[in-house]
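Worked example 4.2. Below are the chains of a multi-component assembly; read each line carefully before continuing.
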Amino acid sequence: MIETAFAALVGLFIFVAVYLIQSRALIRILLGIAVLGNAINLLIFTAGRLTRAAPPIIARGETMPAGPVANPLPQALILTAIVIGFALFAFLIVLAFRAYQSLDADHTDRMRLSEPPGEPRPPLDY
Amino acid sequence: MIAQLTPIADWLVVVPVVLGLMGGALLLVLRSRLRLQQWLCLVVLLAIFGSDAALLQRVLAEGPIAMTMGRWLPPFGITFVADVLGAGFAMAAAFVAIVVLAYLQMDTPETARRDGIYPLVLLLVAGVSGAFLTGDIFNLYVWFEVILISTFGLMALAGNPLQIDGVVKYGLLNFLATSLFLLALGLLYGLLGTLNMADIMGKAQGADSTALVAIAALLTLAFATKAAAFPVNAWLPASYHTPPAGIAALIAGLLTKVGAYALIRILPFMLPGARAVLEPALVALAAITMVLGPLGAIAETKARRIFGFILIGGIGVIISGIAMPSIAAVSGAVLYVVHAILTITALYLIAGLIERSGGQLAESWRRTLLSALLLAMLLSAAGIPPFFGFWPKLLLLQGLLDDGRILHDVNVDWRALILVGAILINAFLTLIAGARLWIRLFWKEPASVASEQPRLGLGLGATAFLSCTIIGVGLWPNGLVAAAQLAAMDLLDPAVYVHAVGLGP
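Applying the procedure described above to all two chains together yields the following structure tokens:
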């Protein structure tokens, strides 16, 4: 039951992210990517199954946990993904700011330096 | 099941990655000593190349070797596996990195040197080697991000507005692609409860096939974006012509090939059932990319952008081998990846030399040499015998035409027929785009010759060395073809791989 609710929440997050990424303002695209990252983290968390079991701690001297325990792997995966995603997101924000400074644009239609409109066509003769 | 420790000799599997990461960290510490940095970078790259070569030799002789970290038994610990595919690609990548390092001596802005180009090159090579050698799909995601971070740095290094514009587009779309990859990973983990590639192969057979097909489609979308296949290729022509030529050559040679490698690794190897369902979509993806890539090249006027579109066409050729896998077709795709790593790098290096001379080299042996190298590389990219590009295309055509696929009984297999046609059209269009570029650059007198001729020195030497290597392996391809066939056999019959990881009988 709680997993269904989480799945719906992930869907909502992805809906918001897709809406934001379709925007032409760079900062909204970045926000969309941040929301998408959180949606994915939540998805991995839900995919590891949500239980009310005990924390996954093995007592000293034992090799196996005593009873049912929560799945620790999704947390490790999410932690990795959060760290990487955060680093890349920070870089992209700085990059967007640099682009705003040096290109004077945060609108994708006006960022045409690498593919300028109206370039000469290739010649037809030899 | 593995119960004992990995023998010391098998630690070779992680050596390329460890060398790259530790070397990158060491160079960062020595960031004020630029001359020492470049020599150390060369030494580390040579060591990585040597360990890749040793790894490939062992794998060719003994079959795949694996190592699982942290004393966890295989499906739980992170596994590194070297098979012919991974070790061969890693070796080609290290080779290209050494050549590009020599080229960078000639053509690197001083600010880029100071801002740490050498540590980033090592980090990129470590990321690429890690992606080729890992046997854990979440670990593959981590290496993708390592590659992404280092290329962000490399592309933005000199920091002029053109580069910033290119890297914004490259960064956003590639970050989105890796996010989709992670999304698919989460779903795959939820479905199968494992992330080890060998374990996924076993568990996928009993799983819900509809869900698996959806996950495979999502993975295909993510990797096709990384590889720049047609509908999701927009980032490549917008960014690959912006950084300095040497850096562009390294990125163009390595990056999209990692995406192509992941497609080879996931579809025919890890999830063959899902690939069979996705076959029509893959055929369409391959055929459209093969035709539209070189058409884009024909519509361009700048050398590096033309090469970008030729690269995209080549990605379609690789996907065609994955779309309808047989031993010959997959070995063609594998060999094409090696060919693309070498040839595309050479093309971008040549473009850099031409840009540096302003297209105004006087009539001299240097102009003659440069024109000959460009012609040879363009013919190789198009797949004209006796150049290297011909052999993978021959294998692909063989794979698609044989196996009774074209004319089994009375039914014509339209999918194979479409792919065969698209491969031939791709070669023809690439030839047109390349020939026209060459004619305009070299077949007429330069309009005005610059009074002071630029120094090309080491850059020209490195480019000539790489091109001669490509011509050489094109003339004697037997060893590479045999290795590619071995890689394809291991891919289509993964029992050896699973056994090496320690999960199979």
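Take a moment to check your reading of the output against the notes. The radius of gyration of chain B is 22 Å. The interface with chain A takes residues 138, 141-142, 145, 148-149, 152, 156, 159-162, 164-169, 171-172, 175-176, 179, 182-183, 185-187, 189-191, 237-239, 241-242, 298-301, 436, 439-440 of chain B (CB under 8 Å).
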